[in-house]
Design goal:
With 429 residues, the protein is mainly alpha-helical. It is built from 14 helices and 4 strands. Helix 7 packs across helix 13. It starts with 7 loop residues before the first helix and ends with a helix.
Length: 429
């Protein structure tokens, strides 16, 4: 299956997702820098912490609304809210007007409205894909996200200094354009049974309590959390180690031309290599691995991914770290689309967006673990951190093996029910 064969809604959501992620990656770091310039680093940190907490709450609200009112309505609400918020941001950072408090409130509004729309977007992808096509769909989506990450980081870094107003104005125009695309071109995809879900705050709380009691889903969140606890280390303990303890060394020497790097340089190289490899190879590798058993692909991917991070945790050789970046990227490309497809298979259709919203909490918890890892890495040797990464990976593999057994059992039960229905129909005839 290729992009042209996908459902129309899928093509639209993947294309729209590119622009959403592009502007998100481009603007979020710039907004943090902007607030730090206005109010100082400590205050900016507290301000962004409030934004993160509000986003989690809005994810949960959006999950309930999407299960009750449908995906399309919630997407329209979120996208018009984001577009108007960015328009306001451009206005209060224009040559006509400058307001720090208004900038913060409008930025908070933009992230909250985006948080409300996110579960509906994720659920819509599941709604119109099939179990057989989901790994391919998530591979394509993963590639698109990384292209947006690469381009958004580049454009934001180049244009922030003298074109902040223009960046915000461009984001406003683009997000309002996304709203129009959703309005005119996107069809509702929520399953019919979702319309029977009760409304109101009480029903939302009851729904999320039900999600919290789903032991299979909790295992899925824990497995994803363990993998994310490894991945987030490149922005936490590994970044600190490279920045503080990595010895400056020669990377290349061609004649009289020599390239020396320190830890910060190497960290940038590792990120660049990872992103470029995903952009260049994700679709090809995904197509190559499509014929393999999904459980085997997940286990191998997590093992390879974890080994690469273990090398990043202990090595002080630049070239060894760069080679490990290839290993990490291969593991990431191998396992991540399978994880997304497994998530789609294991959540019930009538509460899909609630589950998607709850699933997103593992990212926030992973960042908390990353912060704690920085503290731990300051008092233990680097090899201890590598062993901890191995424990995270082993725990994830154990959970994923259980989850694949559940998936297989549910598929077998569904097939048996279909056969039983056919037998009854034949007898009645």
């Amino acid at each position: 299956m290729n992009f042209r064969e996908l459902h129309r809604n899928l093509k639209l959501r993947i294309g729209v997702g590119f622009f959403q992620r592009f502007f998100d990656i481009m603007l979020v770091p710039l907004m943090v820098i902007h607030f730090a310039h206005l109010y100082g680093a400590a205050t900016a940190g507290l301000m962004t912490l409030l934004v993160a907490a509000a986003t989690v709450l809005c994810n949960l609200v959006g999950g309930h609304l999407s299960d009750v009112y449908g995906r399309r309505r919630v997407l329209l609400l979120g996208e018009i809210g984001v577009g108007l918020s960015y328009a306001g941001l451009a206005l209060v950072n224009s040559p006509l007007l400058h307001s720090g408090p208004a900038t913060y409130l409008l930025y908070l509004s933009a992230t909250c409205m985006a948080g409300i729309a996110l579960p509906a977007n994720e659920a819509m992808i599941v709604d119109v894909s099939t179990p057989e096509s989901r790994t391919t769909v998530y591979t394509i989506n993963y590639w698109v996200v990384n292209v947006a990450f690469m381009l958004g980081s580049l454009v934001g870094g180049l244009l922030y200094g003298g074109y902040f107003f223009q960046l915000l104005a461009g984001a406003a125009v683009a997000t309002l354009g996304i709203f129009l695309v959703t309005w005119f071109a996107l069809a509702e995809t929520a399953p019919p049974e979702a319309a029977q879900n009760p409304r109101g705050v009480k029903s939302a709380l009851v729904g999320y309590v039900s999600v919290a009691r789903d032991r299979v889903f909790l295992r899925l969140i824990l497995a994803a959390l363990l993998v994310w606890c490894v991945e987030v280390q490149i922005s936490s303990s590994i970044a600190v180690r490279l920045g503080s303890h990595f010895p400056a060394q020669r990377l290349l020497s061609i004649g009289s031309w020599t390239v020396h790097v320190d830890g910060v340089n190497v960290l940038g190289i590792l990120r660049a290599v990872n992103t470029l490899l995903v952009v260049c190879c994700a679709l090809w590798i995904g197509r190559l691995l499509g014929r393999f058993d999904q459980q085997l692909r997940m286990v191998v991917g997590v093992v390879v991914f974890t080994l690469g991070y273990m090398v990043w945790a202990v090595s002080s050789n630049a070239w060894v770290l760069i080679v490990a970046a290839f290993v990490v990227t291969f593991g990431e490309i191998t396992s991540l689309p399978v994880n997304q497809a497994l998530l789609a298979d294991l959540v019930p259709a009538d509460s899909r967006t609630k589950y998607m919203a709850a699933y997103g909490l593992h990212v926030r918890l992973g960042y908390l673990v990353g912060s704690l890892s920085v503290i731990l890495s300051a008092v233990v040797p680097s090899w201890v951190m590598a062993v901890l990464f191995a424990a995270f990976g082993a725990g994830a593999i154990h959970l994923y093996r259980f989850l694949f057994r559940v998936q297989q059992d549910r598929a077998a039960q569904a097939a048996a029910q279909v056969v039983g229905a056919d037998v009854k129909t034949g007898v009645a005839a």
